[in-house]
Each structure stands twice: as C-alpha cells, then as structure tokens.
Batch of 2 targets.
Target 1
Amino acid sequence: MPFRERYTGLINKYRDRLPISDDTRVISLGEGNTPLIRLNNIPRMLEKNVDIYVKYEGLNPTGSFKDRGMTLAVTKAVEEGSNAIICASTGNTSAAAAAYAARAGITAFVLIPDGKIAMGKLAQAIMHGAVVVQIKGNFDEGMQLVKEIGKEVPVTIVNSINPYRLQGQKTAAFEIVEELECAPDYHCLPVGNAGNISAHWMGYCEYFEHGIVNNRPKMLGYQAAGAAPFLRKEMVDNPETVATAIRIGHPQSWDKAWNAQTDSNGWFDECSDELILETQALLAKREGIFCEPASAASLAGCIRDVKSGKIPEGNKIVCTLTGHGLKDPDTAIRQASTEILTVNANLAEVKKAIMNNMG
Ligand code: AN7
C-alpha cells in the first residue's frame, strides 16, 4: 500500500488559493483537515429526512477554527517582518494567537475580558507564553483598544479585521465541498464577530466562480439571544450569554456577514442560552461529540428550523462546531444532569452502583 502524502496544514494544501509565494516561511501546526461527521441518532430522533453533518473544528491544533486564520495571519506577519502580534479575544483567538506566535518565535499580546473567558482558553494563552492583559471590560471594548494600539505601537493585529484571517478560514468551505462533492444546501454557523460566516461564504463563492462546484449553500447564522446584534439590526452594548465565545455586541464583519446572508438567501436567528446548553448536551450524549457552548448554537438553530419545516426535508445541512468542549469544562460540569456516584472502594458497593444503572 502506498504511503499517504504527509498532511502539513492548510497553507500547503491550498497554497494556490492563498496569498503565499514559494519562499514564504509557513508557520503551521497542521491545522485544517477536520472531520465532517454525519449525525446518526439526532436526525432519527427528529423523524425528519435530513442529512446533518457537523464539521468538527474543535479538532484543530488549539481546539478551535481560529487556527485556520491564524496560520496565515502569523505566516504573513512574520513574512512582513513583524516581531509581535496582538488581538482582543473572547478566548479562542487568543489561544490560537499564543500558539502560532510561540511556533514562530514572536510575541503575542492578548486582551481578554476579565473573568469572562473559559478556563481552557486562559490556560492555553498562559502556557504558550502570551502576554495576557485582562481588561475590565468586554470583547468589544478590547477590540476598540486593539485598533487604537495598532496605530501607536508596531504590532500586527490578528483579529479578523486582518484580511489574512478570513482567507485562511475560507478553506473550511473548500474541505466540505471536496468531501461532499457538492456544497451543502444549508450551512449553519454560530455568529459572534461574524468573521467565520463571512469566510465560509467567500470560500463557497470562490469554488462556485471557478466552476469547482455548481451550487452554494444558504448561510444560516445563529446568535446567542443576549448577544444578537444581527437580529436587533443594531449593535448591542452589553452582550450577555453563557456562550462566552460569542459574547460580542459589535461584530467587526457586519457588512460581509449581512451580505452572506442576503446573497445566499439565508437567515440570522437567535438561540436562548438554555437551548444552546441543551443542544450541547444532546450532541455529547447522543452522538459522542463534545463541543463548546457557542458551537452548539449552530446545531441548536438547525434542529429548531428542521423541526419547524423552515429547513425542508430532503436537504443536506452542515453545522460548524467551532470549538472543542474541553475549552470550557466549568460550564459543562455546572450543567451536568447525570449524578456522579461516590461509593466505598469495595466490590459490593461498586457492583450495586452498576446494577442499579444497567438501564
Ligand atoms: C467557539 O476568540 O471572537 O463570528 O475572540 O470562539 O467568526 O467571531 C471567538 C469567536 C464561534 C464566533 N464559536 O465566530 C474570539 C472570538 C467559537 C468562537 C465564534 C467564536 P465569529
């Protein structure tokens, strides 16, 4: 059997479609190439004839889709001679920035909202040696400060206002098309700063315009109800949600995301925190897939719209699971519905605990 070519990350795989030259030094951790998993049990429960796939972006090197954009943003920053990068973040961007900066041997500065990022993400920023600045404010205030700092200090901003970020992230759409041999009919994403939905739409349009595929999905963006500026049709000043990753009220990619929705005949909708957590648990229990709360917003919206018939039967749907469940163990444990059994360390008690739960 011939050996498979070693996978070395999405820049090498898609270099013809990215702003890279032959002698660019690529900063990669092997990101991309994430599994597209077809759900079995949830569609059966819904009693609807739909094909639901999840794109498990939590399996990227730092546990979220942010690695796709960060590999390119850091590669280009280094190519342009930058020694430092900076971002504001609800956690995942800072984890990715910290890791890729470590890999490149440059400094990462990360601004995070004090007390409002998940523990795993904070651990990542610290372990990778980023300079962590907690601000007594939210993501949107941090983002504003980063833009101002960028004008005064020689640091490269690696939030998604950096165009290389979306270029890297568009490759998720390429992978989906290549695997399904067509674009899905619907693509559901959680929306915070709105970069990812914009990047996916860019990717689908690129393959469509180059004749690689002859259809494009309707783009469905789901926001947490307490942080849903696209639903309110205006910026939200005090966003609140248990899904801290998408606790964002002033999305930077407003126009791009709005156009993705309009041009694809898709829609935005909102999900309550309760529905988000319920869906996170459902996916974990019924399909064996653990995503973080924000990620579950895509599937939560999808299931609701399939149930109501807004997404008709006979369609192929992809939901992006943007981040791994292990990012936020606290929220998972806090909402756990299964009791943890504590018994003495003897055969009789352990056996009893097992027999009582044979179901
Ligand atoms: C798990 O890390 O904005 O709509 O600073 O971490 O492209 O912003 C995170 C966003 C969805 C929303 N799911 O994506 C950050 C940050 C997860 C996320 C989103 C984020 P965008």
Target 2
Amino acid sequence: MAIIPINMQEGKIAQNSEMIVGIDLGTTNSLVAYMNGDQPQIIKDPIQGTALVPSIIHFAENGDVTVGNEAKKYLIEDPKNTIFSVKRLMGKAFGDVQSFKNILGYQIIDDDTESLVKIRVKDKFYSPIELSALILKELKERAETVLQTEISKVVITVPAYFNDTQRQATRDAGKLAGLDVLRIINEPTAASLVYGFGVESPEDAEQEAPKKVAVYDLGGGTFDISILEIGSGIYEVLSTNGDTFLGGDDFDRAIIDYWLAQKMISETDLVADKSFGQAIRLAAEKTKKVLSENDFFSQEISGHQLRISRKQFNELTQHLVQKTIQLCGNALKDAKLEPQDIEAIVLVGGSTRIPAVKQAVNDFFHAADRKTADSLLKDYINPDETVALGAAIQADILAGNNKDALLLDITPLSLGIETVGGLMDVILPRNSKIPAKVGREYTTSVDGQTKLKVAIYQGERQLVRDNRKLGEFILSGIPPMPAGLPKIEIGFIIDADGVLNVRAREKRSGVEQTVTIRSQYGISEEDMGKMLIDSVRNAKEDMQVKALLEARNEANHILYATDKFINQNIALLSKHEVEQLLTHKKELQKAIQSTDKDLINTQIQALNEFSSPLAHRAMDKTILEAMKGKKV
Ligand code: ADP
Ligand code: MG
C-alpha cells in the first residue's frame, strides 16, 4: 500500500506527478520549499525576495488579518492583538503553559479544565490550531503564486519531542488551511535528509552501517539537540534534549543589556517610548547578525550611538552557548554515547550562524582532532532553511519521484475512537508506518462509572458520524471511582498484515477487553479518496462544530463542578456569593443553548473569574481545618 494522493481540483486520486511541498512550521519563522529538479529549493516571497515568513499573526480592528513580515511591526504597537510563538501552545492544556503565559503579550484563557488552551483576541476565541492554519495558508498562497499551480499536499515538520496531541494538532492545522498533510516528520530527520543521510539507494544501504548523527538546532526561542541513528532509510531518534526557552532572543537581550549598562541608552527611554523600544529591539537583532560577519558594530539609532564588538558579544553570551553544550552532553549521555561516537553534526536554526556557537559545537565534538576527509560539521549556508529543504526532499520521496528511497507499508486512513460529544480522537494517524503499536490514556467523565464504550472509527473527519465505524465493545467491571480517577489505556496494535487489535485496560484494577478488526482495508481507493477530499473541503465547518461541541462539553463540566462546589461549601459562602454564582450559572446555561462558541467561552471565563477566588478561599479554609484536626 503506497501513499494515496488526491487531486483537490478534480476530486480524484492524483497521479504521482503532482507537486508536494515541504513546510517548516517554526516557532519564530516558517518556510516552504519544493523540489526543483533534483535540488530542494526555498520558495521566496515573489516581491520582497525573502525566504522566512515570521510566525506572527495580527488581527486589526477592522477585521483584517496579516501574517508574516507585515505582522511583525505590531508586536510592540498592538501586542494584545498580535500572536507570536503559537507553536509553543500547540496541543497544550492551560496547565502546561501557565508558567510562561505572561511573556506572551496576548490573552490565554484559563478555564480551569484539562482542555486545550484558547487565545482570546477581542471577543473571539481561537485555538492554536486555527492560528497555525493562518500561517500555513500564507505559505500555501506563496507557493501557489510562485509555482503557478494549486498546492494541496504537504509534508510538515515538528520537533522530535512533539507528542501525539501536538502532532495531531499540526495535522489539523494543515487540514484547516486546505492542505492534505501526507506526513508529519521530525525536524532533525528533515535536516539530516539535506545531507543525504538515509537516502542511499537500497543496494548501498545493505552494506552501510547505521550512522550516528547529532542535529544541533538553535532557533529564535528554542534550542533542540537530537541524536539520531540513520541507516537504510530508517531514522531512529536515540535521544533528544534542549531548552524551550533558550534561543536567538536571549542573544538580542544580552546586547540590549550591554547598551543599558554602558549608558548608551536608558531604561526610562525604553519603557517610556514604545516605538523606541521597538527600534532598539530590532537594532539588537540586526547588530547580532552584523557580528556574525564582522568584528565590530557601530551605528547611530534615534540619536543614540550604539556600539559593541564581537569579543564583547561573545563574552556576554558565553553562558548561553555553554548551556547548549551542557544539554548536548545530556543528550549524548541518554543515548549512551561519547562525543567521538558522533559521525556528523548538522547545524540548524538561524542562531547557529553565530561564529562562537559553531566554534563551541566544534570543540565539544572534538571535530578538529578527527581524521575525516569530510568536515564533521555540516552547516548549510542558510541554517534557518535546512529543515524546510529536508521537508521538500521527504515530500519528493512521497510523491514517488525518488525511486531509490523505499516506502514502507502504511495505514491508508486515520484510526481512532469516539470521545464525548461524538468527536473523533485519532490514535493512529493516516500514513503511519505499520506494524505499529500506539496507546493513549483516557478516564471517566461521571462519578462511579463502571462501564466504558469503546467505538473504533476510520476516517479523517472531526465527528465520528462522518467516518467509518469499524467496531465497538464495552469495557465493564471498572471499580466505581470518582470521575477522572480511573486510568483507561486504549491501545491500537496493527500487525504487518494490517490486522488491528484494540485493547482497553483500566490500569488500577487491571480489567481489560480486546477486539480484533480485519476490515480496515475493506474500502475502495475511490471511497478513500472521497473521504480525504471531504475532510479537507469540510475542514472549516468540521472544526467549527468541533469547537462548539468542545465548548459545550467544557461548560457542562464546569456547571457540574460549580454545583458540587456550592453544595460542599455552602457554609463558607455568603448569600450574595451564592446568588452571583447561580446567576453566572444561568448565563452559561443560556449560552449552551446557542450555537455561539465564543459566547459560551465568554461565559465560562466569567464564571471562572468569579468562582476561582471563592475556591481558593474554600481551599485555605479546608487546609486550616485539616491542620486543626491534626493537633487534636
Ligand atoms: P525558529 O526555528 O525558532 O523558527 P530560526 O531557525 O528561523 O527560528 O532562527 C531565528 C533566529 O535566528 C532569530 O533569533 C534570528 O535573529 C537568528 N539569526 C538569523 N540570522 C542570524 C545571523 N546571521 N546571526 C545570528 N543570528 C541570526
Ligand atoms: Mg526551526
């Protein structure tokens, strides 16, 4: 079974010749690339000639949405309506992002539930998926303008440490942008492809021993180090490490701090004049780039003479570089390797253009002492383009143009189960290699629940009613526990013949139930093609229905929790507070009846803002009581 591409225009299964592009959806910058003959090439802005699309989105008062370079200037001018670093929020719940939500200038909503984060812009609520889709759409349009053809199929890269939810969120973003995401690949894998690792012809691959490669990726806000073992087209990630808050931004800040310390600028000026602050920030980034090529920087900006030498810059940022090296050490340790075991180091990310960074990596891996013909350090001229170029190479392999690379068997459509509200939860995405074994943990939604229905579906739509049902069974005998406490693992195991085994197991009690499904291929290629097309065509509506259902689920959950809270703490609440809570409840109940997800979210937020101080008070009181109890 090979990849089944579809032609969106004709609604038919496409021939292999259709263009597939590769996309690097980055935290700071995104890029799109394609295969031009046998060379991967970045698709540049046709007018500006720029390769990078800053991953920034601005929502104007009049409803206009701008993405990329145009949106960058609003970061300081209009921070509340300017979204950046959305990749940090992909597939995350509020609890995961609480520690850094303050550094983002926009509003992230805490609804006190486990559900995924939402971003509030004026009166609308957006998911990170919708926001990423806007960036992807920009890249799609750029590619269509430059290549003069419709682009509907892509390969998108994600960090190696992205979990299932984050990968699925990235797929959904692609779908929402009108793209068929043929595959999600790891950024370090993509970068390695650029240097020809892993794409040897099958004959060579037989003899060649697997190569150990380190991919050092220092971007705008994040640092990732990955150790890979590559052989015969198989990429194994041996270990990953990094720091999600270490990147080029920190180097810029070091320069600003130096200018402040040298009194070339003053803190008061920076704070008082926002556009001056903006100018300085941009100047610092520019300075850093100049210092990658020159020994000295000096320029007058807004009446201030700004100076710094590369030597000074290196001293100021040495601790940052050392931190990355220390993390490289950790990654090697996890992979049980020594620096000498690494056969190639791939440098990725705009910040690896800094000479001191290159030098430090070279030193750490003892590159100079080794007697190899080729340089150990693989640094592409534009390291911020490597990942996108690799994605284009992968896309070309999927398109069937690279005859040497072999494709393994894959699942033709996504497989998943039904969750609350009739939503499809994908457990094994389409185009996954088989055999495969994946699992995900679920829990109960009602106190004392002893049974759980597991319904298995195949397809690409967000609601199970639009997908194909493969089977269902009931896991019974779950010991009664409060909602949320049972740990029910649903495992999907597909063997080499494509037979799917689904197992549900409650981990605390050990009760389990299994079903075998043989019919996942009992579907014609034509129906399969139709299903894929429908999923992309209906992506927007599907996502809207999904967002509404999710908002309702959440609202019901919160109403339930509020009732419970009032009952348990009635003695601690004033009459007025109870009345207020009931009014908020009523408003939320009214909102649930509507089909306006933004209204529901607004009411959820209002109820939470009112109830959370009360909850804290009740908690303090309970703790006090408990302590008193102990003394007796
Ligand atoms: P991400 O992968 O996080 O989206 P990139 O790989 O595009 O980010 O890297 C962006 C970072 O690279 C920015 O901090 C930018 O200032 C930095 N950068 C780009 N060019 C240079 C250069 N010539 N010298 C130093 N840093 C650079
Ligand atoms: Mg990157």
